[in-house]
Amino acid sequence: NMIKLVMIPVLIILLLSLASFTPGSTSKKLKPSDSLITSDEINIAYNYYSPEKINSPAVILLHMLGKDKSDWVDFARKLQKEGFAVIAIDFRGHGDSDGSWQKFSEKDFNNFVLDIEAAKEFLGRQPKINVNSLSLIGASIGANTAVKYALKQEVKTIVLLSPGLNYRGVNIEKDISALKIPVFLAASEEDTYSAESTKKIHELLKTTSEFNLLNNAGHGTNLFVVPELNDKIIKWLKKNN
What we know:
Elements: H1 2-20, E1 36-37, E2 43-44, E3 46-49, E4 56-62, H2 73-81, E5 85-89, H3 106-110, H4 112-124, E6 129-139, H5 141-152, E7 157-161, E8 166-167, E9 170-171, E10 183-188, H6 192-204, E11 209-214, H7 228-239
Parallel strand pairs: 4-5, 4-6, 6-7, 7-10, 10-11
Antiparallel strand pairs: 1-2, 3-5, 8-9
Helix pairs in contact: 4-5
C-alpha cells in the first residue's frame, strides 16, 4: 500500500508535465488568451498602453516589414503620456504573431488590414476609450496598410512614415485620392523610392495633408532619429482628433 501511495503523486506529476508539453512549445506561438484573434483566425500579438483619463482617443501602431511592435515602445509611451490609448501589434507573420512573412503571397500582405480590424475590436472592449476617435500610424508597409484600412473603415487621421506606392502588392497609388481624412506624411530624401512615392501621394491627396521631407533619417520608424518628429506627430493627432 505504501508503494501505491508514493506512486500516485509521481504519476500525477508525470501526467501534468506531459499535459504542459506540446510539440510547438519552443515556437513563438502565443496562447489565444495572450493575443487577438482575427476574422480569419490568426493570432496577433500586441502591446497595450492604457490611458489614465476616460474618453481618451486611441492610436494603432503598425510596424515595417520584418520588424515588430517593439519598434514603437518609446513613441507609444510618449503617446500614452499625452493622453492617448495605444496598441502596437505584430502583423501576421511577424514577431509573436502566427505565420512567417517570408512565405507570404500578395494576398497575405493585403490581409494585414484584418490585423488592424482585430486591434480596433480590442480597443472597443476597453474602458476609458473613445474608439470613434481613432488614428493609425504606420511605417513602410504598415503605412500602406493604414491607407487600405482607412479607405474602408472610419478613422480620424493617418500618419504615414515612409509609405510607398506599392509594397509587396499593397498598392495604394490608385486609391490614395479617395481618402477623405487628414494625412500626415514623412520620408527621408535619401530613401529614394519612399521619398518619391511620398511626394506623389502628397500631390494625389485631396484632403488636408502635411508632408515632412527629412534628411539622412532612414526608413519607417528610423525617422524618429529626428527628435522633433515625435512632437509634430503628437501635435497633428491632437489637432485632428
